[in-house]
């Protein structure tokens, strides 16, 4: 029975569970995002219904708040996908008299345009479709639909996503604002543990499919997978002064520590490190422990991207 259950999950592509804190953050983010879009748009336009908020913004909210680090969630995908799709949708409504043909063309052409502009954003398809089969309120807007509500809604959800995700140290939007990235801790002397990004990009081109990860993400994923497979536990010898480490936990327990001092000793009980918490749980606190104890805490090494070392 257990085998068939696992097989069913595999067939259905059920993803591994995330922490409760991550689920709560996503839920709260979706609420805040749509609430602010509705409130602010009404304040500026006084409109109602679909002229106030594009239904596809609900799908955009899922992306920017539930998967803020995803490739399809990033700003270029968000703005480019929504705006280009809106233009395509309105154009199809005006140029194609048959509503069924116009609806199909709107979504199909929106996908094509997003592909060419490299801004695939799934909610864009709904934005294009709404311009064709939407209410008389939407049709009356004409190309103004692109600016209000689409552009206005997109700006609001973008600003909200940037601000909201900044309150959770393990997530940022856009992903380029993450203060720490995984350190290239693989050993370049062992080619089997390192896959150059150019080969990943070529492999992605061979697959010829859009996936919600870029080459850098995949390179990091492969490196970490191989590293965990070969060296699943950090040793005390790998803990060095002025390095950054994380416990790799999810949600509120996530933490990043910076080794700021050490007392080196051949005796493991006296070989001490002093660290400061620079991100996540226990932020700005400092403490000390043996190098061995610290190694047991470590999940992986990081390096700062937007932080001055101190």
Automatic annotation (TrEMBL):
Annotated HPP transmembrane region domain residues: 18-174
Signal peptide range: none
InterPro entries membership: HPP, TM_HPP
Transmembrane segments annotated in the record for this chain: 24-44, 50-69, 127-145, 151-170
Keyword Transmembrane helix: yes
PANTHER family (UniProt xref): TRANSMEMBRANE PROTEIN DDB_G0269096-RELATED
Name the UniProt record assigns to this protein: HPP transmembrane region domain-containing protein
Native source species: hydrothermal vent metagenome
